[in-house]
Design goal:
62% of the residues lie in helices and 19% in strands. The protein has 64 residues and is of the alpha+beta class.
Amino acid sequence: MIRWFIVIFLALICISWFSPLLQKLGFGRLPGDLRFRLFGREWFIPLTTTILLSFIASLIAKFV
């Protein structure tokens, strides 16, 4: 169970790093992606984008 939390956390960090590129492709604005301001900083939690990209990665891994 802890392994899955680590994997999800690392995926969220990677998606946050690549968010400018992904926003140009349309990701990050999907329903379920959270964007809010807290303590004067904008936070972005891409839940739906993470699920969608994980699904795409699993399909690629299955067929390769």
